[in-house]
Amino acid sequence: MAFLDVDLRRVTTTIRSSWATTERIVGRSLRDALDPLLYSHTEAEGRAV
Q1: Is residue 28 in some structural domain?
Q2: Does 30 fall in a domain?
Q3: Does 44 reside within a domain?
């Protein structure tokens, strides 16, 4: 069980780090495209809260 826990943690970390890299690459171009939309949406949410 301990082995499974460690292995699962390693897999999660790997997925997280590879996702972070993908997010950095894709996110930059996505952010450039969606920034106006996301910003206005977030701003509206901020005012509501």
Answers
A1: yes
A2: yes
A3: yes
CA distance 35 to 13: 28
How many angstroms from the chain centroid is the CA of residue 2? 28
Host domain of residue 32: 10-48
pLDDT digits (tens, 9 = 90+) for 3-25: 667 788 888 888 888 888 887 88
* Residue 49 three-state SS: coil
Domain count, the chain: 1
Q: Say what the pTM is.
A: 0.34
Query: What does R_g of the chain's alpha carbons equal in angstroms?
Result: 17
Best CA proximity match to 12, nearest among 22, 4, 2, 23: 4
